[in-house]
Amino acid sequence: MKQSQMDHGNMDHGDMDMCSMNMLFTWNYKHTCVVFKWWHIRTVSQLILSMILIAIISHLYEYLKYYAGKSVAAGGSGNGRSAKTTRASWYGAQVGLSFMLMLVFMTFNGWLMLAVILGAAWGNYSWGNSTVDNGTRSLACH
Question: What are the transmembrane regions (predicted)?
Fold first, then answer.
């Protein structure tokens, strides 16, 4: 049976509004979903807004690293339950946010990758020269 003769139930895929999933690097932004299905990029303006939000989130991650390091240094070597809980909470927040940014990078979308990088650079410029950091932190995801 030829494919032209097969009945596919009138499947029309022309208006499907599905998220694309790229496994190769791309600059195509249409139908890119960022971490969640509801964060769906369809237009250039949505791409630009998403890039700004991602850059801000990446900047805030750098601030979180700075603030967590500062609060640990200010708390000294406190080994009490409260100090340990505070350190663990800040660390958990850092890890969670770093994994979210990793998932943004894993869209393989060059525009979104660029937003993460620019936000991280902006955050490092703003917070990375602290005496707490001393430039000893690596570029690990957490």
Answer: 44-61, 97-122
8 A C-beta contact, residue 45 and residue 52: no
Question: With contact defined as beta carbons under 8 Å apart, do 91 and 83 qualify?
Answer: no
Which residues have C-beta within 8 Å of that of residue 129, sequence separation ≥ 6? none
* 76 conformational bin, left if phi > 0, alpha if psi -120 to 50, beta if neither: left
| Statement: the pTM of the whole predicted model exceeds 0.85 | no
Between the ranges 12-21, 75-84, 90-99, where is the mean pLDDT highest? 90-99
Q: What is the pLDDT of residue 17?
A: 80
Assigned token pair, 68: 């967590």
